[in-house]
Amino acid sequence: MHRRHLRSTIPLFALTFVLTRCGAVPTEPIAEPSVEPRAIALAAVDCDAAEDIGALIDLLEGDGTLNHGRATALRTRLAQAMKHEAAGRSGHAADAYARLLAQVEGWVADGALAEADVADLLACAEDVLDGPDEPDPDPDPDPDVAPVIDGIKSPGEWDAATSVAVFTGGTFYYLNDDTHLYLALEMADAVPQPADGFRIRFDDTLDGLTTVGDHELRLRMDSYFDLHRSMFGWGVVDTEQNGTGATGSSAGLNFFEVAFPLDSGDPNDFALSPGAAVGYCVQYLNDGLGIDAATYPRVGAFDNCMLDSDQGNYAVLTTSP
Q1: Is residue 139 part of a domain?
Q2: Does pTM top 0.85 for this prediction?
C-alpha cells in the first residue's frame, strides 16, 4: 500500500493539554476556536490501536476543534475499521482507516479545519494504518443491495440496511450502492391517509450550519418532491427533480421508499460518494402534519431538529464504501 505520510508541524514533546468542559454539549454551531492552536502530546497514547485514534477524536471534540457532527462521522469510520479488524479483514480495515484520513484531509483542504489543529490525529491514524500490509484472504464481494422502489417491504430487501428506531412506531432505514442512496421509513399508523408521509432534511456539508441549498426530500402517499432550503426557508421545490419514491400500507404499517443519486450534479442536492457522511433530520407526517414526538433527533421536550435554525443536533448518516 502506497500513501504519503503526514507530519505534524507542531513539536510533539513537552506539551501540556488541559481539557475543560462546562455544562451540556452546545447546540449552537461551534465557531472556530479563538485560542492558539495546540497539539495533543502523542506520548499520552501509543498510537498503535484504534482506541488511540478514538481518544484523540474525543479530545478534539472536547476542546471544540471538531464539532459534534464531524466527530461523529469520524467515530463511524473508526467503528467500521474496528469491525473489519475484528473479523480479520485487514484489507478492508486499512481502507476504512484511509477513508478516515481522507475525510480529515478534505476538511483541511476546504479550510474548515486548520492542519495544525488536527496534525496529531492524522499522524496517529497514519501510525495505526502503517502495519503489515497483507492482502485480504477473503474479501467480501459487494452485494446487490439495491431495493426495488415499489412501496413494499419485501422479505430480506432491507436486511443489509442500517436501521434506526427514530421515534415510537417508526424505523428509518438507509443503505447505498456505488451510485444511489436508498432511504425508507416504516411507521405504525392504523388509519392511512393520502397526506401521510415523511420528510428528511440534510446538513449537506456536515458543518452544523443551516445553509442555502441544503437538501430536503418529502414523500407522501400522494406525492414526491425533491426540495431545498432558500434564503427564505425550507420547502422550495427544485427546478431539477431527482430521485424516485414509492409508498404502501399494509396491516397498520405505512412504508415509504426513496432512491436518490449520491451525486446528481444539482447544486441543491447533496453530493456524496461511497464512504461519505451527511447530517439528517427525519419527521413523520401524520395526515400532512409533523409533531415533536414523531421527529428524530429530538432536541428537547418542546424542540426538535425541524424547528432549529441550526443543524448542530442532526444525526449522521455514513454511506458504505
Answers
A1: no
A2: no
